[in-house]
Design brief:
The complex is a heterodimer of chains A (85) and B (117).
Chain A: E1 2-6, H1 12-15, E2 24-27, E3 42-46, H2 47-52, E4 64-66, H3 68-77, E5 80-84
Parallel strand pairs in A: 1-2, 1-5, 2-3, 3-4
Chain B: E1 4-8, H1 17-31, E2 34-38, E3 75-78, H2 79-84, E4 97-99, H3 101-110, E5 113-116
Parallel strand pairs in B: 1-2, 1-5, 2-3, 3-4
Classes of the chains: A alpha/beta (85), B alpha/beta (117).
Chain lengths: 85, 117
């Protein structure tokens, strides 16, 4: 499993085709705006970044809100991490 | 020994990023097995006949010709992105392996670490 972090909306264009069915996506910083639209991946978003942008209650239900603790746990579980920015 | 995949996705002369990423790739390959994947506008780094003299900046792209000597075995790019840019492999200064989405996911799997630039 590869963990992909996305930190801005435009960065999704770079990695869209590279995210496999076993992979997961963590939206961080301005990337959390992607939580407003349907994504074909297992998607998490950092709670602090959602809160700061007023998205905590606007995000799609399919996007799971996580804290730093869970972010670290997912990072440890992942075989490798790809940062898209 | 860890293998490293360098993903290069920025255009060459608008910022220092592309030059820095080539330096990192050359340095990394002196220590361990490295490969390169050019994505999106990163492919523009490899366009042949770049002339930067009048711009007053270093033509760092010439360094890509050294990748072979540094033992960078797999130099790859996204075939879809290449086509989207209106380019073919003939437009590029070095030979390159073109990969579809599936093959790109595989090359990420095949390396221990991935560094994005």
């Amino acid at each position: 499993m590869v963990l992909h972090t996305i930190n801005k909306v435009a960065a999704l264009d770079k990695c869209r085709g590279l995210i496999g069915p076993d992979d997961l996506v963590v939206l961080i910083e301005d990337g959390v705006y992607l939580a407003l639209s349907e994504l074909p991946f297992r998607t998490y978003a950092l709670e602090d970044d959602l809160l700061a942008r007023g998205l905590q209650h606007r995000r799609l239900e399919s996007v799971i809100s996580i804290g730093y603790q869970e972010f670290v746990e997912l990072s440890v579980k992942a075989e490798k991490i790809c940062s898209w920015f | 020994m860890s293998s490293i995949l360098f993903i290069l996705s920025g255009a060459p002369h608008g910022s220092i990023n592309a030059q820095e990423s080539l330096d990192a790739l050359l340095m990394g390959s002196a220590f361990t097995q490295c490969s390169a994947l050019f994505l999106g506008q990163g492919i523009l780094q490899l366009v042949s006949h770049q002339e930067t003299d009048d711009l007053g900046v270093k033509n760092f792209a010439l360094g890509f010709k050294a990748l072979d000597e540094y033992g960078v075995k797999r130099i790859t790019c996204s075939v879809g992105d290449l086509q989207q840019l209106g380019l073919s492999t003939d437009d590029l200064m070095i030979g390159i392996e073109t990969l579809d989405d599936m093959a790109m996911r595989q090359i990420i799997k095949d390396h221990d670490k991935v560094l994005n630039f």
